[in-house]
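Supplementary Methods, section 5.1.

A reviewer requested that the exact input to the structure prediction be made available. We therefore reproduce it here, unchanged from the version used in the analyses.
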Amino acid sequence: MTNRVFALEGEHSALGAEFMDWNGLKLAANYSGITVEQEHDAVRDAAGMYDLTAFRMLWLRGPDARAVLDQACTRDISKLKPNRATYTCVLTDDGGVVDDSVVFCTADDAFLYVIGTGNSGEVIEKIAKGKDVELEWDNSLQLMSLQGPKAIDILAPNASGDVAGLKFFQHTKSKLFGRDVMIARVGYSGERGYEIYASAEDAPHIWRSILEAGKQHGIQPCSFASLTPVRVEAGLLFHPFDVNEDTTPWEVGLGFTIDKSKGDFVGRDAVLAKEGKERFIARGVSCPSDKPVFEGEEGLYRDGKKVGKIISPAYSHRMKKSIAIAYLDPDVTEGATLTVGNDAGAQKVAVEDLPFYDKKKERLRA
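The structure derived from this sequence is encoded token-by-token as follows.
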């Protein structure tokens, strides 16, 4: 297999990045001289740019590409039109979540499938055997994610086509700073944002150009360190921590991805049979704080009985809260008060429905 290309390593190094390995590629764990809080504020108030090339990208092309994806995914891919995308799941035969993913339809018979860390590629490869479809893992395509209310002010004057007119989960081919790209109105922040797919050769030029054009708008390069508080505030799941093969879509708030009206797909009968039989529900817990309180995996109690555990903790300096995605017994609902542990004087936390931030998701779809 061809080695994956990390085209922006030099750009990150120039910004003082420390690197971490994730998903078979490096990513910027943090930047010297830029705090997590500054990155977080940029995403919420202006624009922050992440390099998410460590996500994996699979092309499916050919007459049977659509049918292969439709068999693998919980969403009805047969209805997906060119220049549209959808957020979906791929399940195990038992109805657990192998992956959550985004499918981009780039032509009637061509799709870009984008995932994080799961093994849904193997599911797709199995379904594709004997079919008229070509699969290609793209090891050189670079993914930059520009998130925040000023993102469009940076992109629109420098891109061809009606980028400002893109609706949520639409995408288009464009020239950005003179280079060919695909721009998609999607993201992982809870803000209006855009993903930019570019060649390895063009990515450094585009990265530098966006940062230069964004100076007047308060842009910041953003590292993996700020992704956690940003995505937990927005109630966004991260495979394999919040969602995995041991969770059903119903348990982690992904029931909306199950299209009950479509034909057969992997795990269909099992997942439909498990609706209403949730062992737990993913919700939020929070407490006012001037510093992080949660570490992860702590037990949550009500009246001396364990009713859940913390899964993904974060600290929001903007909300002045410690927050976390937690698995809670289904009867523990918003407004309940729990304790972290069962000792005398244990920290009290409030249960909230996700997301913590922008409850109605109005900024995301602005």
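The longest helix spans residues 203-213. These observations are discussed further in the main text.
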